Amino acid sequence: MDRDVIISGVHLDLTDALKQIVNEKAEKLFRHEGRIVRVRFDLEHAQSKDPAEAFIAKGHIEIQGPDIIASAISDDLYKSIDLLIQKLDRQLNEHFRK
Q1: Poorest-confidence range of 19-23, 28-32, 54-58, 65-69?
Q2: Average pLDDT of 17-37?
Q3: Considering its fold, how many domains does the chain have in total?
Q4: Among candidates 9, 15, 79, 68, which has minimal Cα distance to 37?
Q5: Where are the beta strands (DSSP E) in the chain?
Q6: Which one, of 74, 68, 4, lies nearest residue 33 by Cα?
Q7: What is the CATH number of the domain that holds 49?
Q8: Containing structural domain, residue 82
Q9: CA atoms of 6 and 14, how far apart (whole Å)
Q10: CB-based contact 26:41 (threshold 8 Å)
Q11: Cβ neighbours for 24, distance < 8 A, ≥ 6 positions apart
């Protein structure tokens, strides 16, 4: 099934490999398939002086009901993506348990 995943980069170039990794990790979110309308990821290389906050991954899930939004900050883009996916998945589980 074709997934509606939007990926954008802020102050960084999105490579095909990076897009593929985000799409693969986003599949975890689609366990809740019928209820997800669209998932948007914004990956940002922050212009921060603190190297521990160099990469920000933001996620926005459009679902039936209130949208789910989360972000993760770390010193590594891939780590930020992993943290973001974990947060979004946890929020989805909590949302659908209600």
Answers
A1: 28-32
A2: 87
A3: 1
A4: 68
A5: 5-10, 36-45, 55-63, 68-74
A6: 4
A7: 3.30.160.100
A8: 5-97
A9: 12
A10: yes
A11: none
